[in-house]
Amino acid sequence: MPETKSMDETPLFTATDAVCPAHAPVDHPKIPPEKIGVLLANLGTPDGYDYWSMRRYLNEFLSDKRVIDYSRWLWQPLLQLVILTKRPFTSGANYKLIWNNEADESPLATITKAQTAGIAATMQARFGDDVMVDYCMRYGNPSTASRLRRLIDAGCQKILFFPLYPQYAAPTTATANDQMFRALMAEKWQPSVRTVPAYFEEPGYIDALAQSVARAYDAMEEKPDILVATYHGLPKRYLLEGDPYHCHCQKTTRLLKERLGWADDQIITTFQSRFGSEEWLQPYTVEEVARLARAGKRRIAVISPAFSADCIETLEEINGEIRESFEHAGGEEFTYIPCLNDDAAHLNVLSDVIERNLKGWINRE
Question: Which fold has domain 31-197+345-357?
C-alpha cells in the first residue's frame, strides 16, 4: 500500500545532530548518535472512507492469515470477487459516521497520535533525548516498515516494539509482531529488537479501567443495572488451539470487578465483531445485551477493555448495532464508557510498561 504523507512523516534525525564516532578517523562520515526507539503499534486505519481507500485497507486486513486462516485457494476468490466488491461501501459508510473531518483521519489515527505524543513527553522527562517514540499501524498507514526505517535512520540501534493490545491474541499481537519481523528482514543492519508482552493484568491498567468506570457511574443519576465488558471476538477453535486470549479477557474482567469491589452479578464478559459462520467465543455481545433487556435490565453500561483506543468497533459497532439490539429488546438507558485513549492514567501505565521493558538497555538515573 502506498504511504500517505503528513506532518508526522518528517525525519526524526537532522544532519545537525550527526557526530563522528568515537575513535574514528577524522574523515569518517558523521552519523546519528546512538538512541533507543520505542515503536507503538495499533491495528490500522484506512486513508479515507471512499471505496478504493476502504478496499485497499480491507484487502490488506482480510488477506492476513492471522486474521482469516482459511486456505487461500478457498478464501481469496471469495474475498476478491464477492466481499471486496460490496463491503468497502458499507464499511466506508460506517467510517464516515465517525470520521474526524477536521484532521481528515479516523479517530483511531487521531487518538494514537495523541497517545504517542503523551508517551514521548514522558520518555523525554524520564530519559532525555536517549529515547525516541513513534507509532505505526499493522494495516494501512503509517506502515510498520516505514516507521522502523525512520527510527533506524534517526540512529536507533535498539528498538522496543509495543503492540497496543492489553490481551494477547494471534490476530492482534502476533500479527503486529509478524509485521515487525518482516520489516526487519529487509534491513541490511538490523537493530536489536524487543517486543512487549500483553499487559492485561498490569495493576495500573486495571486501576485506569476502574477509574474510568467510577467516573462514568458518578456522573449518572441512576446507576446501570450491570456493566458489560465487551471484547473483540475470536473463533472458538483458537482457544482450543492454545490462544490465551479468552483467558486474558476473563481475567481482565475479574480483576476489574475485584478492583471495583463489586459482586459477580454486577459485571459480565461478552464478545463482539463476529465474522463468518463458525462458532466464536461466547456470549455474543449483540445477543447478550438483548437478553439482558428482556430479563429486566433496563439500564446497562458497556466498556471495551480490549481496545487501547476508540475505533470503528467501539464508536460505530457498540454505539450502533449493539445499542440498537439493547433498545429494541426493551432496554431504556445505554451508556458507552470510552476506551482509555490518551487519559493521563493510561499513558502513565503504558510508560511504566515501556520503562520496565527497557531495563538493561537504559536505566533512570
Answer: Rossmann fold (3.40.50)
